[in-house]
């Protein structure tokens, strides 16, 4: 069994204790983090390595930042600027050795987009186009691949608390929803929706307006699996306990359980 999680931690230095408790209590093998909000020099390696995890970090001063933490050896680490010319720490990709097999994972933090009439929104759409190209190329290798993180878009009405209220707004605009669905049409599968076709559950709630108490959230964090990874999927679930802690991230982890990984042998 291999247990992989993704979590927009919204500042790892503020929530390193929450992170350490979560990975130990939930027996997480690999965790992909977004919005770590620190440089690589500021990253809390000591606390995490003490638990037996290797770290691959792509940091940035005060904002963005992604990383991969793994109990298994990280064979390759690749920091990628999805949009050329924009030095933003939003994507890191690793190859991990598990039981003499390899698993390729990517931690992704898609831009929010601010508002549909902004330049930031056009940048978000460009980001999705370039991510589509990268993920399309990855599929050609027929590897076991998991690209997970904060995609900052809810694909369907079941993934938001009020489609009439949010339709046309950022994170539920038809243009960005189409971009995400184009990635899914490549052959990647949404692990949570594959495991729970009709379940409404959210991964993000605004800090304001009693959003958590009223369950006014969105599902914008995903584990996207290649066909080879889907074959190994046992289940995927959203663990909302961390959102209910004191001083939480506004996101909560998504966890994917894989069984019987036995392909893609490393020579």
UniProtKB/TrEMBL annotation:
Residues 5-251 form the Endonuclease/exonuclease/phosphatase domain. Its cofactor is Mn(2+); Mg(2+). One of its GO terms (biological process) is DNA repair. Mg(2+) binds at residues 8, 35, 150, 152, 250-251. Keywords: Hydrolase, Magnesium, Manganese, Metal-binding. It is an enzyme of class 3 (hydrolase). The record marks 152 as: Transition state stabilizer. It comes from the Bacteria. InterPro entries: AP_endonuc_1 (IPR004808), AP_endonuclease_F1_CS (IPR020848), Endo/exonu/phosph_ase_sf (IPR036691), Endo/exonuclease/phosphatase (IPR005135), ExoIII-like (IPR037493). The keyword tRNA-binding does not apply. The active site is at residues 109, 150, 251. One of its GO terms (molecular function) is metal ion binding. Its EC number is 3.1.11.2. The record marks 221 as: Important for catalytic activity. Belongs to the DNA repair enzymes AP/ExoA family. This is Exodeoxyribonuclease III. It comes from Candidatus Wolbachia massiliensis.
